[in-house]
Amino acid sequence: MISSKWLPLYNAVAISRRQIPVLHLNDLMEGISEQINQGLRIIQFFGYEAGNGNISVTAVLSDDISNYLVVASAQIEPGGRYDSISNSAPAMQLFERRLYEQHGIVPQGHPWLKPVRYCYGGKTSGAVADYPFYKCSGGDIHEVALGPVQGGITEPVHFRFLCHGEDVYHMEAQLGYQHRAVEAMFISGNPMNKSVLAESIAGDTVIGHVWAHALAMEALSGVRISSRADIIRGIALEFERIAMHLSGLSGMSADIGFLPGATTYSRLRTTVLDTMLLISGCRFGRGLIRPGGVLSDIGVRMREQILSILDNIDRDLEIINEYFFNDPGVQSQIEYMGTVSTEAAWRAGLVGIAAKSSGLPIDARADQPYGIYAKDTIEPVLLKAGDVAARARIRVLETGQSIELLRRWLNLGIMTGNIKEETRLMRPDTFVVTVVEAWRGGVTHVAITGKNSELEHYKVSDPSFHNWIALALAMRGNGISDFPLCNRSFDLSCSGHDL
């Protein structure tokens, strides 16, 4: 049930900043806690410098049942304090740490007040080397450090394990090694030209982030795009989802020595990426989505070609999936490993693959529909086991669902409308939230304009920001040698977290 003090709004629909309720900060935090207890999810909580010298704190929650968002704000002087709600609402712990790090607003009683990103210009961040890892004492307890330099081309992250022999009591991931000031760069220069920046937030989520950015720019400038452009965007997003799910399945197969899976899933991913190249001119879809529409069309002959490719992918997937999920050697290594319960997933605020494999039907395509998904029906795939096997099977189920969506859209009649509309000047003093269900989970962008229509503030939340805690939960009670497979099953992004 929505609090009467909060304003409901819809995904990718702009509102005037004056409409956002301004509460006392204690009332704002109490409202967040109450609504999380009622089943809403926190998707954004951030601060920015208001014109009067105070810090404006804004919170956005998602009501996944009623299909709308709610927003409210509060103001507090720099360095102010409030009572933390992270103990009762653990999903808030990272958001409260980020607010403290960026603006020095102290959440009193926070159980885990540590650096998040060591962001440039932050108020409280210390040195990376001084990170206060969790400690555990006892004669047989020992620590194992891994990173931040990882093998291959893996991004920098430091893992610290507290172990008793081979058993892991606790694992902690320290991120923040590659802060790039992404949010600050969005508000410098022409915001309509920031699509390349959005595509670079997380290199494996190009379509997810650039679509969220385009939705924000179109809402702020009052631009409506054609159904034709919406369908092409949806096709690109589902191809990105298939490509990354196949990448995850290939990686998990390699980690357990199941070479038929490693090679076949990887080969099929290459076919998918080549299809993206056919559609957009780039294997990762860069340069396809821009504010106002898309830059590449899909003609009748290309649609027939893509449908033929999908038939081949579907046929080969059925064969390799049969091997993967019926091989006793595979199942013995992925079942009951790295389990995250439904309750733990909800309390931690997980999204995407991590949430759906633990029994939480969270999917912005169904919960906060946008684009082509507002005209179609999506039923989130769901499993409850919460282990590595569930996270693998969710990928397979979502891949099949994406193929069916692609066939449906590609078999539609003649698509009408321009693929690209001209953008206009953004409206002044306007606020918009956009949510896109990328392959890893919900991507959230918030854009706020000032009185001269300039972009004043831009906030980004990647699903990895919500889900790194899931890896720590999954590792408890497992062997340290299980870490590579557990890590791969979540497939989290350091870039998406660090920004």
Characteristics:
alpha+beta, single chain, globular, 499 residues
Summary?
The chain is α+β, with helices and mostly antiparallel strands.
Write the topology of this structure.
Layout: E1 7-9, E2 15-16, E3 22-23, H1 25-37, E4 41-49, E5 55-63, E6 68-76, E7 81-83, H2 93-103, E8 106-108, E9 141-146, E10 158-164, E11 167-174, H3 182-186, H4 195-199, H5 206-221, H6 227-255, H7 259-280, E12 289-290, E13 293-294, H8 300-326, H9 328-334, H10 342-348, H11 352-356, H12 364-367, H13 388-410, E14 430-437, E15 442-449, E16 455-461, H14 463-475, H15 483-490, H16 494-498
Parallel strand pairs: 3-6, 7-8
Antiparallel strand pairs: 1-6, 2-14, 4-5, 5-6, 9-10, 10-11, 12-13, 14-15, 15-16
Helix pairs in contact: 5-6, 6-7, 6-13, 6-15, 7-8, 8-13, 14-15
Descriptive account of the structure:
The protein is α+β, with helices and mostly antiparallel strands and 499 residues long. It is 40% helix and 18% strand. The protein is built from 16 helices and 16 strands. Strands 1, 3, 4, 5 and 6 form a five-stranded mixed sheet that branches. α6 (227-255) runs antiparallel to α13. The chain starts with 6 loop residues before the first strand and ends with a helix.
